[in-house]
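Example 9 (inverse folding). The structure is encoded as follows.
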């Protein structure tokens, strides 16, 4: 049976479950741990419930110092904040956090909803998740990917929705970092732009990985997962393959931009183009625009300067009148590279102070890629 949308292109759900169970079995065997003994231990310490091993062992990324992170799903309701139970036995460190089946079911329903709405609404729901819901985003991802000690993956059917939501969220963050890359370059920050470019690359990697069903929240694993995926070459289609190749080209070249001799060499344009190609290749949207939303009030301060006062922070902005650049109509990402140095520097100051935020808009019918 082939892979449905949202699953790794070359694997059926059954094959993916078998691969992950093999990762888990190898990990436990390497630690000298028996699954039945573990099940009995966890029942004794935290009670009955559906027990899932999560995180790096499931993805084949665990090492000799990796903890055993479990999530337990129980039938009874749970109230209040969740605190993980830490268990130390025979030199092993185990952690388990519990949630109710009702909470999890509500989260899986919300995942389906967020995957079906327009991209901007998906991102808004994703970013509000941890303020409103238990299990939180990271734990929900862990549950969907989790492997029970009997080798089953009871929540893997939610992977397509998880893939869509996580891919859109990472792509949105990448777009924000691309905007900062362009602003930093326009402002003359030859080193600052490189830092933003690295962030853009990492989040574009995660967006493409998630698009292919490889969803894992922990940022430290982005690059290793990407290298593994590129080596496997299991691209869903030629469009994302081409985007992946361009991402790899930029990744291998980005460090060279720190050379003083390259300080005036354009960098941002390539990232703007890559981000837009990723939008289209993943079926997220045809294009994106950006504008700036001020989160406070702009007040006269000193001759030739204004004070932007906002709950997130305040900042003095030299050479600013009664409004900031880009606070009117949205512009295309390509137009960012045309901003003058003063406008770009002003926006960076406001954004870094938390007195303004980026408003990314998506345009064109999203498709199922």
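The amino acid assigned to each position is listed next.
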């Amino acid at each position: 049976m082939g892979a449905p949308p949202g699953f790794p292109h070359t694997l059926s759900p059954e094959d993916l479950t078998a691969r992950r169970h093999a990762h888990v079995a190898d990990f436990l065997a390497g630690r000298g741990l028996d699954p039945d003994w573990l099940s009995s231990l966890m029942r004794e310490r935290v009670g009955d419930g559906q027990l899932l091993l999560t995180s790096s062992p499931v993805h084949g990324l665990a090492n000799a110092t990796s903890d055993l992170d479990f999530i337990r799903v129980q039938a009874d309701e749970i109230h209040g904040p969740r605190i993980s139970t830490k268990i130390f036995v025979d030199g092993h460190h185990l952690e388990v956090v519990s949630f109710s089946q009702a909470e999890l079911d509500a989260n899986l329903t919300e995942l389906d909803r967020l995957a079906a709405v327009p991209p901007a609404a998906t991102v808004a729901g994703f970013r509000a998740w941890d303020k409103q819901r238990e299990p939180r985003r990271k734990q929900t991802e862990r549950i969907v990917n989790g492997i029970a000690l009997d080798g089953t993956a009871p929540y893997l059917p939610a992977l397509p929705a998880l893939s869509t939501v996580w891919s859109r969220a990472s792509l949105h963050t990448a777009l924000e970092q691309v905007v900062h890359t362009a602003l930093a370059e326009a402002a003359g920050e030859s080193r600052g732009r490189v830092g933003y470019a690295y962030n853009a690359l990492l989040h574009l990697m995660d967006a493409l990985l998630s698009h292919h069903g490889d969803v894992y929240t922990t940022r430290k694993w982005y690059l290793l997962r990407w290298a593994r995926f590129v080596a496997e070459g299991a691209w869903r289609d030629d469009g994302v393959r081409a985007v992946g190749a361009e991402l790899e080209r930029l990744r291998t070249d980005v460090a060279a931009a720190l050379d003083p001799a390259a300080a005036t060499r354009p960098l941002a344009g390539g990232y703007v183009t890559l981000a837009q190609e990723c939008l289209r290749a993943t079926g997220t949207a045809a294009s994106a625009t950006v504008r700036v939303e001020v989160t406070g009030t702009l007040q006269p301060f000193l001759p030739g300067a204004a004070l932007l006062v906002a709950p997130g922070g305040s900042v003095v902005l030299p050479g600013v009148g009664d409004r900031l650049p880009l606070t009117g109509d949205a512009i295309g990402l390509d137009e960012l590279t045309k901003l003058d140095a003063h406008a770009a520097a002003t926006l960076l100051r406001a954004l870094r102070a938390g007195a303004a935020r980026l408003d990314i808009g998506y345009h064109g019918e999203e498709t199922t890629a």
